Amino acid sequence: MLALLDGVRLTPAQRRIAQCLLERGPRAAYLSSGELADLAGVSQPSVTRFATALGYDGYPALRRTLRELEPTPDRAGEDNDLQHAVRGEAEMLVRLADRLADGGADRSAVTEAGKLLAASRPLPVLGLRSAAPLAGYFGYFAAKVHPDVRVLDHGGSVVADQLEQARAAGATAMLAGVLPRYPKEALDALRDARAAGLSAVVLTDSPLSPAARVADVVLTAPVGSRLVFDLHTGPMALAMVLLQALCDAVPAQASARLEEFEVSAARRGVFVA
């Protein structure tokens, strides 16, 4: 699918259609134009124009190509809505695992990102609106192996202040989680960070995300859109994969800090099990 999109300039509506197709993997080849339009929140003619933009006579021709690329039978009709949503997350995780194979571009990007983040002192972690829990999740665990993690989960002038302070304190890189619907203030913060000389590692949902255009390293995992609100299973999993890469970049430091934390937690009786 990414090969079909390579070099094609898409409108915002067409990008939403492309994202829907990327999220659904093999199932995308079995969607009608009306179903795809509903999922993407666009008109049915927009789906036709999208197919035309990719060089096809219409959506049926594009769908035939998708079936040839990924000839996996659709089993959506066997599931109820909740099963369909959860099973979609499981399928997405399988595809994410395949992308992380040794020697692949995604594995190399994760390794590069881990090194950049491990070397930054302090390490700012940005997550606004729907991405705030992602930033908090990553930041909580990263603080156990990194000496100075700063979670930035409030936008506006506050995040601009925090980025300036982090840069003045010696930060060289930042992690930004940017998820649909892509807050403008998150994109502004990314541009400010890069203008200040920080390398930007972006964790987002799609290569077509606007955040991908203002990043040094882009890591992607689709969000599930089969329920009323998005499922962030993939981005959360990828965040922990990235944290593992950070630990692998500085194994001695990570091990020593983890041991210090365990000794401190045991002394203070932090956990009951």
Provide key terms for this protein.
273 residues; alpha/beta; Arc Repressor Mutant, subunit A; Rossmann fold; 12 helices; 5 strands; globular
Structure, described:
With 273 residues, the protein is an alpha/beta fold. It folds into 2 domains: 2-74, Orthogonal Bundle (Arc Repressor Mutant, subunit A); 96-266, Glucose-6-phosphate isomerase like protein, domain 1 (Rossmann fold, 3-Layer(aba) Sandwich), CATH 3.40.50.10490. Helix content is 55%, strand content 9%. It contains 12 helices and 5 strands. The chain has helices at residues 2-5, 12-24, 33-40, 44-53, 59-69, 81-99, 105-119, 132-142, 157-168, 184-195, 233-249, 251-268; strands at residues 123-127, 149-152, 173-178, 199-204, 217-220. A 5-stranded parallel β-sheet has the order 2-1-3-4-5, with helices on both faces. Strand 3 (173-178), helix 10 and strand 4 form a beta-alpha-beta unit. Helix 2 (12-24) packs across helix 4. The longest helix is centred in the first third of the chain and has 19 residues, at 81-99.
- Round the Cα radius of gyration to an integer and report it: 20 Å
Q: Main β-sheet: number of strands, strand sense, barrel status?
A: 5 strands, parallel
CATH superfamily of the largest domain: Glucose-6-phosphate isomerase like protein, domain 1
Number of helices: 12
Share of helical residues: 40-55%
Give me the oligomer status: single chain
Kindly give the count of domains.
2
Which fold name is given in CATH as the topology of the largest domain? Rossmann fold
The level 1 CATH classification of the largest domain is: Alpha Beta
Strand order of the largest sheet: 2-1-3-4-5
Strand content: 5-15%
What is the CA-CA span between the terminal residues?
46 Å
Order of helices and strands: HHHHHHHEHEHEHEEHH
Q: What's the overall geometry? A: globular
Output mean pLDDT. Answer: 91
Could you name the ranges where pLDDT drops below 50 across 5 or more consecutive residues? none
Which CATH-level-2 architecture of the largest domain? Answer: 3-Layer(aba) Sandwich
